[in-house]
Each structure stands twice: as C-alpha cells, then as structure tokens.
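Case study B.
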Amino acid sequence: MYGWIWRHLPGNVWVRTLISIVLIVGVVFLLFQYVFPWAEPLLPFNDVTVDGAAPAGHAAATALKGNVA
Amino acid sequence: MALRAVVRSLSELCITVGVLIVLFVVYLLYWTGLRADSASDDEIARLHKQWAAGPVDGGAPGGGTPEETGGSPSRGQDTTGDGQAGGTAERGAAPGTARGTAPGGYRSGNSFAVMYIPRFGGGWSKPVLENTGKQTLRKGLGHYTRSAPLGAKGNFAVAGHRRTYGDPFKDFPRLRPGDPVVVTDGDTWYTYTIVARPYRTLPSDTGVLDAVPAPVDEAATPFDRPGRYLTLTTCDPEWGSSHRLIAWGRLDATQSASEGKPDALTR
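Model:
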C-alpha cells in the first residue's frame, strides 16, 4: 500500500518526501479533528453522571461487582 | 510473488493499526486535556469579564438596581454572540429574579459559576456549565439540570470527568470530610463542606441527587433533613464506567463577592 503510494507520487525523492509529510499531517489532522472525537464516546470513561443510562451489559456486570464492593 | 504481496499488505495493515492506536492514546491522554484546559480557561475568563461588566451595564441605562432590572437581561445579551442556543427570552421575561437563583434560569450549555476545590490543588478551578451533556463536560463541570440552583435549598449537583478532558476530578477519592468546595456565581461565594468520604455506587443510583440525598445504601445517607446541599459525581474506576463516586457537601457559609475570597481559598 505504502509502496504503491510512493511509486505514484510525482517528482524526485525530495518532492515525494515533502508530499508524503503533507499527506501524513493531513491524515493526523482528520483523525484528531473528526475521527477520534467520534470514536471517543464509544469508550467507557465518559460516563460520569448518575442517570441509570448504562448499557444493559454494563448493568449486569456491575451488579455482581457491587456485591464485592 | 502473490504470497509476498499478501504478507506485505498484512504487515502494513498491522503497522497502520498500531500507529492508529498510539495516536488515539495520545489524543485521549494529551490532546483532550489541552483542549479542555483551554476551553475551561476561556469559560472562566468569559465569566470574569461578564461579572466585571455586569453591574456597570445594568446600572447605566435603567434606574433600578443592577440586580433587579438591568442585570439579568443584559447578561443574557452579552453571551448571545457565542452561538449558543438561547434562553435570552426566558431570562429577559423574568427580570425580577436574582441572577442564578431562579430554578432552571441557567442557559443550557453556558457556564454560570466557577468551582474551587483546594484539596485538588491550590490552582484548581473549573467552570460549571448548565446540563451534563457530552459537549458540555468537554469544557468543564456540568450542573444536573433537574437539581437545585447554586446556593438554593435542595441539592446542587455537579458531574465531572475523572479522566480525559483535563482530568478535572482525577483526585476525587482524596476528598475528605471537612474539605471546602467553594463556588462563586460572581455575586456570592458559596462555601460547601464535604461531609463524608466519597461514596461508591452504581450508575442507576439516582437517589444521590435528591433534594435530601437518598442513596441505595441507606447507611451512606449523609443528611437527615432538608438543607442546602452539594453533590459531586464522577466515574469509578478511573478508566471505567461500571460505578460512580459521589461526594456530598453542606453549605456552610456565603459571603458577597465584594468581601473578597473566602477563608477557605486564602488559607
């Protein structure tokens, strides 16, 4: 994949390197700006409120742990 | 030849996934903190500006006291430029209510107070915003919309992130009875005192937010009669969401903003 991209970039080695860096920075920007903020709420450490809105699977698992605590 | 291509593609895929995971961890541990700290600082700066400008705005055009006629509506207009869904009409319609003490008078998603908890460090201060939505909690602490307003009779309940987004409640388990929690809305300093060690419970234990908190575990019930209370909630364990940690406080003292910071912050 990366080899294919490299072969299809125009110019000599330096131009290709420059374009590669720009591409990498662009991808990281897209990830930080759009992809990660979207993916982050899917992970658990965002739930800090008591509203009983935990997923069913969670509730079942925690009921057991609750006995220990 | 074909096998070589397959192996190479697989290796590149693994490397890509690895890099993605590392980047995501960097995002969570570092980037969300940076963004949240700057958002919190912006909110606090905006509040201080508002509070500094408020009485002047209110006093000049009308004849009434800043608290009653001018104060609230002009405050509402100050912030409409931020593109937040507006409750301006709502605030404007009830000019007689003292700012911040009308139930439901806070504009959703807007900051209305600053909280200080010396136990979390001398420089620890976070804005308190109305509602506990995801977007709101990225900027600071969130006030449960259905709970009592700041300083009022009932339970002033606030949620905050334990980890990520600036780690506001990272040291939550270190809260101890007697710790002050100071909140100001620009007019008044409210000093709450924590009454018990943090109580660990399930996310469904919504009784902890009641006007007189009623946790499932009755032994943990902090108060036996109505009063002016504070509830803080965050998640437990640190990186999980299976439980919640709850801390309760009682309003101990109030003083006007013009009297300067309360003792709890100058100690």
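Chain A touches chain B at residues 1-3, 28, 31-32, 36, 39-41, 44-54, 58-59, 61-63, 65-66, 69 (CB under 8 Å). The remaining cases will be described in the next quarterly update.
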